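Look at a sample.

——
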Amino acid sequence: MIHAQGKLTRLRDKRLEDASLDYVWQTDPELSRLDAAEPLTIPFRTFLGEYLFVLENSLALRVQFGIETIRGEYIGYCACYNWDRAAGEAEAGIMIGQKEYWGKGYGSDALGLMVGYVFENTSLKRLYLKTLSDNTRAQCAFKKCGFKPFGERESGQHRFILMELLKANWLKNKDLLAEEHQSNKV
């Protein structure tokens, strides 16, 4: 099921057939570094079992989408997780695994769609995320979607920029953000 469509991407339900590419992306050292994680080393069969569990229980754990191009090519995923219903907030994340789509606006298009979907269809009042301080491409995409830096954090050997987007600010600026999405590419 397609949940939202933008200029470059559309958000759809995650599917079991996404697992093979998700596994490739999560075992890729460059993608893992950008996610401040170690590449997965578990066998695909183990990964598939965990993947199936998350798919079957996704509504209770997170809001997640597959990202595909308008032509239907699966290029990544995005999600809201660490959902705190009492505080009305969740953490946002995105992965564009197909590297040929980096730096061309696909990530900000998809993230903007997810933000709109979440703020229009849930009671969340705040989305937050963290990104490596040297990942300026991601920071530009997040800012393009309305996220603002609010702090920094060090964890282990990583330094992160903390960013947030309040629903009230998104509501005030959503028309401007939509215009910006249509006229710019990251």
The beta strands are 2-5, 9-12, 63-69, 74-84, 89-96, 126-132, 148-155, 158-166.
